[in-house]
Amino acid sequence: MASTKLMETKDGRRFFQICVSRGHGKAPYKTRWYWPDGWSKRTAEREAAKQAAAFELACKNGEVLNRAQEREKAAQEAAEAAKLKTVRQYADGVFMPTKEATFSENARSSYRMFLDKHIFPVLGDVLLTEVTPAIISKLLVDFQRAGYAHASAVKLYNILNGVFEMAFLDDSIPSNPMLKVKRPAPRKGEQPKDEGEKAYTVEELAYILSCAAQEPLQWQAYIFLAADTGLRRGELCGLQWADIDFQNGALTVRRNLQYTPAAGVYETSPKNGKLRIVDVGADVLALLKELRDRQSRSCISKWCFTQEGTAEPMHPQSPTRYFSKFGKRYGIEDFHPHKLRHTSASVALTHGADVVSVSERLGHSDTAVTLRMYAHANEESIRRAGQIVRDALKAKEG
Asked: If 0-12 CB within 10 Å is exposed, 13-18 middle and 19+ buried, where does residue 17 land?
């Protein structure tokens, strides 16, 4: 008979581990069923029992593989994959399954779109061994001539490089054609923006916030919170009231809401996989309290930012659409949620914050990421430090 045991993950998610015995001396079949948020203990236990019964039946019917059978199946699939010949067969049979083991749903969807829309129509039915540097170079040139941005051309190049590098390393091809393909350069007149251009000045940010104060309360709170904390768009959409510590002026980033056409809206962990605590200003907390009170009059929702008139969380793509309209209303060029993140980091660094603290606040995996992205801010801070020394000497001389 199947047994269930209530357990927790490292990040506090509750689940029932379901085990079905395979006999003495053999490892049992195991699976997990996660306890949905908001469910009572009685409801969750009842559903876990149903899941356990269904899993036990699947085990008896031979529908569940043990570890040895899984290894055997994987070996058979690998043997079949080794026989694949065309770019499409290799990408679908080897490259994507390997990458998907570590990809987020968003990254998987992006790679799949580039393969299906741009790579397979040209290279899909070509044998791996017959793909030449010239064929790939023409694909990249045609892509740029079609008007796609430089960043998209680089993404296409990186995916192609990943496919052929993997094929070369596993001996599917004798040489890697990408070694003779140049990374796409920007078209004439198309210079990619450096990170400094992706951030607003303090004066520009003050104007944006003065405009936001005229918007509906939910968007006021969203924009002020984004500027104050530097949270990502999906992290803001994934905030719940339980994540906000009003007493101590802080919030905990626990989740990230994402959207792809294939998966719809789904919940994932923050980008670096770690929870983080971020301080929040008193003015922003006051806006959030007002939003919570007003929201409670129309519906009861655990989410801070919701779809209008419902308890459902705000769609992760809604802020981008709203920011675009906001920018047009108030004459703010290229206004989008991520630009407030850049601005929050840039302003912090140029006004004396240390890079380690800013990196932690943003949820970067290491400080090198922050240094690379906001080098312009550090340069300004360095110049300010030099000026402080010069001012001190002048004061002494005076």
From this structure: middle
Residue 186 DSSP code: P
Q: Provide the strand spans (E) within 139-263.
A: 244-245, 250-253, 256-260
CA distances from 322 to 90, 97, 106, 220, 240 (A): 41, 36, 21, 12, 21
CATH classification number, 81-180, choose in 3.50.50.60, 1.10.1790.10, 1.10.150.130, 3.40.50.2300: 1.10.150.130
Q: Which of 338, 326, 346 is nearest to 236 (CA)?
A: 338
Q: Which helix (H) or strand (E) holds 145?
A: helix 133-145
Domain range annotation of the chain? 3-64, 81-180, 196-383
Among 7, 10, 8, smallest CA distance to 274 is for 10
The residues pairing with 256 across neighbouring beta strands, listed in sequence order, are 268
200 vs 210: CA distance, rounded Å: 14
Global pTM reads 0.59
Quick: pLDDT tens for 80-120: 655 668 999 999 999 999 988 777 778 888 999 999 999 99
Q: Please state at what angle helix 217-229 crosses helix 318-330, rounded to 10 degrees.
A: 100
